[in-house]
Amino acid sequence: MEHPAKEPGKLSRWVSLRTLSLSTRYNFVENSAGATTSNQGQYQSVVKGAFHLDPAGKYSIEDGLFPGNRFSAGWNGSGWGTGMLRTNLYLKQLYFSAKPVGGLELQYGGLYFNQGVNTEITGYDYDGYVMGERVRLTRPKDVFFDEISVTYGYVGDFDRPAVTKRFHRLKQANYHQFLFAKKATERILLSADYTFQSGTDTFREAVRVQVQELRFVDVFHFENYQVASTGPGYGFAAYGEKKLLSKLSLGGGYAQHDRAALYSDRFAAGKRIFFNLLLELTPEFSISTAWTEAMRNAQSTGPRTRFDVAVNYDLLHTLRRAKLF
Fold it and tell me: What's the pTM value of the predicted model, to 2 decimals?
């Protein structure tokens, strides 16, 4: 879980932490042929932060440390159930960030994907990575949009998650993206982007709306993509979320993809329904579940049934209570 900036802690002059969490989960996956491909316990530790190079924090080295030994993997097997014990941790993101003037950021190195309002359902897997450079402009009073982002880089090395193994890709490019995002009202967020990757042109759009008046749903989210080359195609996801109690949220939706791509490994080509549940036990601890099911009367690839239940510990919240960050 990422946190907004708060009152500086004792170490904030030199280090900022965006995420520091520990999680464990049970993962079950049945493929389209009906065979169980995963029935195991897994664990995860995530660190996302920055080292400041100046007192004002305009110049920094940003980093992301994650488990998972490939592009779309973010968990390690615990050795319980199918699969072997894995103890790998990879520095997947490492880049230089410069904010020379307000509303302008320059990034260079091993980056995260910028997806706007789109999620990993139709965008890129949250565990993925890209090598390259990015310019972000966030000056809505001057240019109308809340964010304009341009990224050039290289997407690949899908079995080399360590950024130190991919620095040579900074000299290459097979990916570029132009993204626009706008907060239309206090309740409506919009984004659209054009992405070129390895000969494929893709357009993506997404909208997220607060609709508490409907009573049965608090948030409605719609996202889609259109492939304009290499065989035109289309996919989308529609999702609704409702807070049932003060600490319990339930969400569900429908996703349809016409092809395999680098989106979340919960999804693949075909039609699927999915549900999520989040129970906040304390500010530090939560339980989450995720279930995805392919429609039985539709042709689908990849996982037919996937179920996860996880216990999450937000260690950063504890450190902030101690006023360290």
Answer: 0.92
